[in-house]
Each structure stands twice: as structure tokens, then as C-alpha cells.
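Hi R.,

Quick one: here's the P-type Zn(2+) transporter sequence you asked about.
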Amino acid sequence: MAQAIVAAAKARGFTLPVPEDVAEIPGEGVVGHVEGRKVIVGGDAFVASRVGRRPGDHSAIAAGSVLVAVAVDGHMAGHLVMSDPLREGAAAMLDGLRREGIARILLATGDRADVAERVTEGLGLDGLRAGLSPDQKVLLVLSERKHGPVMMVGDGINDAPALAAADVGVAMGARGAAASAEAADVVLLVDRIDRLGPGIEIARGARRIALESVVVGIGLSVVGMIAAALGYLTPVQGALLQEVIDVAVILNALRALRIAPHEPATPQPQAVSSGQADILHGATP
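And here's the predicted structure, written out as C-alpha cells:
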């Protein structure tokens, strides 16, 4: 959300001074000083509470829009109304995850329920949890474990605790928060949610090849040791055989470089909104 505000300001030719004494309240907003003036940016209720006012009536705002309040020097300065677009590739990504055996897919977001319902309409999710704080996202991850291993996908700083709590945490690393990348087990280096499916395919293929190499390598080594113990191999022959086994295992492992995941069809520009987190539950790589 912050990135969208900064991008819109730059597009209008505004000069953006560097803020000072910035403090972030996770899931609520930020407070800091800009050119000596105290500025508060965040949800309407959060900003209103900081300036001693009641939240306003914004029922006229279109459903699915996000309202960001701005206060300067203790006075409400205005509101920014933002529309939350979908990430490109979300629908195709969800279809691919279903094919990969992911049994249960939920969306966990700090956005309002009407926003979340609008952006996920027609995606076929198994559940939607809106208006969640970072702690509530962690609780959701832990509660979903009764269904099996949990994979969490997120890109915001509010997702970091849930990413760390999940069995597998996946962060969107291209434009996501550094905290989420540090907390995750896997980081996607491109800002495309549809790369998650191919990532799972690559992980499963690499794991399968690794297990093959371990089983075959240990098996042949055991056979060689038995043959040497029974006197069928001299020490030199045993050493040469072990080298051959090692080379064979390494060559087999190199097959991982040739894994070609299924490429989803290029969808229309729509998918999961930036700043929200998907909880994907089911089989893990």
C-alpha cells in the first residue's frame, strides 16, 4: 500500500522529502516527521484515535476500495481512496496448485471484508479471513495445521510472523518487505504469484532426484562393501568402484538442472492484491 501511494505521488510530480523518526504500528499505520511536521498515515480509525476524533462515515466509498487517512500536526488532513487490483496470474496459479495436490486454499488479509471479497470473486478459494492483525494471521496458520502441513505465501511486513510460523513460508521477494523475506523459508525473486506453482514442481522434482541419488549411492556402496568383505574385490578395486559410484550419483543429481515445470497459460492482468497474504494449505514440496 505504501508503495502504491509513493508511486502515485511521483507520477504527479511531487517531491518527496525523506521522513524522520518513523515508527510503524503493524497492521495500523505509520507515524513520523516530514520537514518538521508530525504526520500520521494509516487506517481511518487508527489516525482518528491519534488526533482525538471519531472515525468518519465513509459509507459512500465504493465497495472494495481501501481508505487511507492522513493527519498533519494533530489535525486530519484528508483521505486517500485506493482500489486494490489483483495480482497477475492468481487464477492460473490456484488452478495449478489444485493440480499439484494442494487440498485447501485460504486467503488471510488485513483488508476489510468487502475489499477481500471483491478481489477474490470467482477465484474458488476454500475460505476467506479478512481484517486480520499479524497475530491473528499466526493463529490462523496454527489452527490450519489440524488439516495438515501449512504453506503461507505473503509479501508484507505484517505477514512475517505467519511466514515464520508456517511449515513452509514463501515470500514475494521482488518488491516485498525485507522482514517477510527473512522470515520465509523460500523467496520468489520475481514479483509474480504464478511462479509459485512451477516452484513447487521444481522443489518436488529436485527432492525426488536427491532421494534417488541417496538410495542408489548407499545401495551400491553397501553391495561393494559386501563384495569386498567376501573377497570378491581387492582394496584397489573397491576404491575405484566407490569413485565410479560417486560420479554416477553426481551425474544423476545434475538432472535437477533440466527440470522443466509446467508453464501456466498467460492470464489477463488480474490476481492477488499486493500487501495481502495467501495461506495455502495441503501437500508441501
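Residues 84-285 form a domain with the Rossmann fold fold (CATH 3.40.50.1000).

Cheers,
M.
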